[in-house]
Amino acid sequence: MTNFSRLASLFALILAVVVTFFAATPAFAVEPIKIARDDKALDLSGAVQIYRNQGENFQVSTAPGPDGIVRRIEVEANDARSSGDWAVFALANTTDQQLDRLIVAPHFRLVNSGIFWPDLGSTRIAAITPSEGFALDRQTSPDADVFRVTLNPGTVVTFIAELASPKLPQVYLWEPDSYKDSVNSYTLFRGIVIGISGLLALFLTILFVVKGTSMFPATAALAWAVLAYICVDFGFLNKIIEISPGNEQIWRAGTEVALAGTFVVFLFAYLNLNRWHGHFSYGALVWILGLLLIAGVAIVDPAVAAGIARISFAATALTGLGLIIFLGIRGYDRAIMLVPSWVMVLLWLCGSWMAITGMLDNDIAQPALGGGLILIILLIGFTVMQHAFAGGALHQGLFSDLERQALAVAGSGDIVWD
Fold it and tell me: I need a labelling partner for 359 at 20 to 30 A (CA). Which of 32, 64, 333, 394 fits?
């Protein structure tokens, strides 16, 4: 009986130690990141510690200060968007000057967003509380959570971020002027891309008047879908209409579904697949109807709709590759002319896959892929215009019958007396 009591006491002691260990896990001190005066931008993503399901009250140990003392603080959630998840990081100003910095967490990041149930973006940080001083002031920004922080010389400050979503893809520490220059440069690039995309969509729509075959409205629809996708991806749609933070995911998923659907329509219309076999028409119809149903799902669950749209786009590209090879071997001129454009589509698809899976982790990947879509539409537009101006009504109307007869007589070498 005595041995049993000893074993029970030992088990209770071990259990108490384990419970105490797990309860004290959030109390581990965070390692501070040293900030220099010349640092323009620092990626804090790898140094941020995430604590899940901690509730509205969160306790954490601060980073050791200049005196080496680790303090324990408690933070209470003060935002209705709080998810019970918290992020902790620390900054150390090792200079003898006061430093002003911006903590930036973008709402959407294509890199590592995922294929199935992708992260379509949302508000990331509801509020940030420092270990000393008052809560940080939020700066106005339509596509990122931006907070301004002032670090006094020789101080070490721990920041507790109240997360508004389960994921925190990226956190940057920017020097204010450098961040402003970066935003301006991206704004210029995005404006150029959107302008070119809009002109292409308008021009391809006008081509439908020149020659009214199904190929031209299908191409124009694809161009408009690309324009809509880029407007949402670059945040331009927010400047035209007011979109609440919760509805941005619906718009993003809707444009991805539209892009996948119009891509199927273009492939079917350009290759004129119904002339080869009736089953192609049935297959394309079922595919498009399925995407229309997915567009309705985007209102309820945008992540599922976007994931299916991404898979559909990849499947369409691979199916198109097989059709181009099959029809090209048979000497179909349209399939042969589509080869350069489809090579660009496959390269863009490969780059997108590397980006959304995290293999290509770069800040310029997302705008570069947006520009790549414009190159694809540009190549497709050149290919389609060859059908519009070669052998069409415009080409036939360049010379009248009388002028043709005169040229024929002049070319015969005979002398004509009038």
Answer: 32
**What's the CA gap between 125 and 122, in Å, rounded?**
9
Q: Which domain range does residue 64 map to?
A: 26-174
CB-side exposure of 55: number of CA atoms within 13 Å?
6
CA 61 distance to own-chain centroid: 36
Is residue 150 within 8 A of residue 99, CB to CB? The reply is: yes
Could you tell me whether strands 99-106 and 172-174 are parallel, antiparallel, or unpaired per DSSP bridges? Answer: antiparallel
CA dist 269 and 106 (Å) reads: 39
Residue 170 within a domain:
yes
- Kindly give, in sequence order, each residue whose CB lies less than 8 Å from that of residue 412, ignoring residues fewer than 6 positions away: none
In a domain? residue 5: no
Q: Average pLDDT over the chain, rounded to whole?
A: 80
Confidence of residue 83 (pLDDT cuts 50, 70, 90): low
CB 335 within 8 A of CB 328: yes
Residues 56 and 120 in one domain: yes
The counts of H helices and E strands in the chain are 12, 12
User: Mean pLDDT across the stretch 85-94?
Assistant: 88
The secondary structure element, H or E, covering residue 201 is helix 176-210
Strand partners, 90: 32, 158
Alpha carbon 90 to chain centroid, angstroms: 29
Residue 333 lies in a domain: yes
Using CA atoms, how far apart are residues 159 and 90, in angstroms rounded to an integer?
A: 6
**Residue 246 and residue 304 in one domain:** yes
The answer on 349 and 366 residing in a single domain is: yes
Check residue 358 and give left, alpha or beta (phi > 0: left; psi -120 to 50: alpha): left
197 shares its domain with 265:
yes
The structure tokens 């009388």 sit at: 402
For the record, the structure tokens of 29 come out as 């001190």
pLDDT score for 345: 94
Look up the pTM and report it: 0.79
CATH number reported for the structural domain that contains residue 272 in this entry: 1.20.1070
Helices 302-329 and 339-356, packing angle to 10 deg: 150
Q: Which amino acid is at 29?
A: A
Band the pLDDT of 80: cuts 50, 70, 90: low
- How confident is the model over 282-328, as pLDDT tens digits? 777 787 788 888 888 888 889 899 999 999 999 999 999 998 998 88
